Amino acid sequence: MTPERKEAVVSEIVRGTPSTYPAWFSARKRSKPLIVSRRVPILLVGLPVLVLLAIVIYPTIWMFYHSLRDTNINHLFSGEHASVGLENYRTVLSSERFHDSLWHLALYLFFGACLQVLLGTLLALIIYEYLKSNLARALILILLVLPMMLPPSIVGTLWRFLLTPSNGAINQALLDLGIISSHIEWFNAGVSLWSIIIADVWNWTALPLLIVYSGRVSLPPAVYEAARVDGAGQWKVLRRITLPMLKEVIAIAFILRFTDAFKFVDLVYVMTSGGPAQSSELPTYIAFQRGIREFAIGEAAAYAIIIFAISAIIVTLFLKYMKRVMKAQGLA
What we know:
This protein is mostly helical. It has two domains: 1-31, no CATH class; 94-328, MetI-like fold (Orthogonal Bundle), CATH 1.10.3720.10. It is 70% helix and 0% strand. The protein contains 16 helices and no strands. α5 (96-130) packs across α10. The longest helix has 35 residues, at 96-130. The radius of gyration is 31 Å and the shape is extended.
């Protein structure tokens, strides 16, 4: 290129004329943009927001509104219900039935939800550490997950038959093993809640099992190789490496089972209907009874708001505790 041509090109670039681009660049076919219309991002964001408003936010506002009114089935749609302030909340909080159900819930959380997480963690570590065949692991995981796939109504009916006092399979097996000398009345007062806990542990232990197993698979092998080089035994590796690194995963499993406990209705309804003598009622089941079967909509809404507040407070305190533990260990 001659000096004169170079000067011409530079001057054209400075002036920003179209001739600074090659002919093939100017003549190429422009491709269409990925988002053709401005409506697309609006739809992508707007539809989920509308669904959230329809199935979460609006029902919550509706529930809180009716918890402050004397709503029942007779004038639910007529708009004739009067405001009663906090009377529904006072009725719920002063109810001995509600107090008993909170005690039942505490027993279920400790012996049901916590036991599920402990058993799920134990089974996950046993399967991963002691089964070296991927096929055997997959088969056992499938078998253990099958109960979780069953509808709660089927699980409740199945365990109601298994726990039948006179000729149930559980009583017969315990008698044959010599563990008991007479039939256990599984659905009597004081025992019926434990029958529900047994069925729920069988039904949902697979969920924390899968969560913890997935967490264990994702741990870096280099950490364990270094521990083996240093001569650490299995127990020390479990206590000092595996469990501390799985704390967040186990906490997630616990929170999932904990929050599910506050909407636990199906097995109670199918197996005991809250009886006998309200000995197996949980707060959510009472809300179901008052709202769906007895049509006391206002009181049922107050039950739901109180249950939500209790679960939110407990989960928040648990998360703060986990954050403090991780911060003390330098993980957060």
